[in-house]
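Hi support team,

I'm filing this because I wasn't sure whether my run with iron/sulfur cluster finished correctly. The job status page said complete, but I'd like someone to confirm that the output block is well-formed before I use it downstream. Pasting the exact inputs I used:
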Amino acid sequence: MALLDVEKLTTYYEVMRGYVKAVENVNFSVEKGEAVGLAGESGCGKTTIALSVLRLLPSGGRIVKGKVLLDGIDITKLDDYQMRRDIRWKEIAIVFQGAMNALNPVFKISDQIVESVSAHEPDTSNSEALERGKKLFELVGIEPSRIENYPHEFSGGMRQRAMIAMALACNPKLLIADEPGTALDVIVQAQVLKLLKEIKKKLNLSMILITHDLSIIVETCEKSAIMYAGKMVEFADVYGIFKEPLHPYTQGLTSVFPDVKAPRQRMISIPGLPPDLLYPPAACRFHPRCPYAMDVCRKEEPAFAEYKKGHFVACHLVA
Ligand code: SF4
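And here is everything the job wrote out:
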């Protein structure tokens, strides 16, 4: 059984003009010790999936349909108190993009880690929580005594590492990292991603990595899911996505990473812009931008079907 099974997840945001259909009928799973990358353009629903899994949707956001099974238990059925007491931090933790926004600038990092542990593990003493924090600092490559510093005394990379340490404070089974290196320069970003990979291996941690950068997924994940306009259009292992992308949108995304040893190939560009999810296009949501669109694409939504073992795609071309 997979650690996390997301089935037909559908999340809408209610706004003045109607409903933004941010995520519709999304299916994927994450095995124990596995990293799955969620990729796609801004606004495609990646972060909404993470916020739905954790039930941290902003006001107006609502899971309309679907299941989120954690170890076989549907956590969409839990109330807020149960989510806070049993799931967030203890089972699933998240590292948000922009560590400076997530850390409280007026408290020492030690206080913030101790507070997080006490909130979720009332039986753990403050000194035990502090000791745990120091060990986690060591794990993420920061001198443990620096736990007594304030966030502004850290560089951007160290803050991101401190956030990862804090997210691991209650030993979660699944870590969600939302654009973990976006605000960092490429060298520090590479170090943070290397660290996430090492931690995943050491702790046999499962991970969902959210990014718009496919190269990060290749470096860090075993599987990848491609999102377009709130729909999952392709899911496969990383090799399948890069060597045999089936969906025209995935082909467009992957063609910007040409293989330097392969024969010359034409780059496939993706014209146009993602649609307004208040009024998404009918049937295949990608049809207004798809170079291969056919009549059927405007009339019937393609099923998200298994093309070959473990490789799922939603496209009439592949049916
Ligand atoms: Fe393009 Fe049709 Fe496939 Fe959609 S279903 S991606 S429009 S070919």
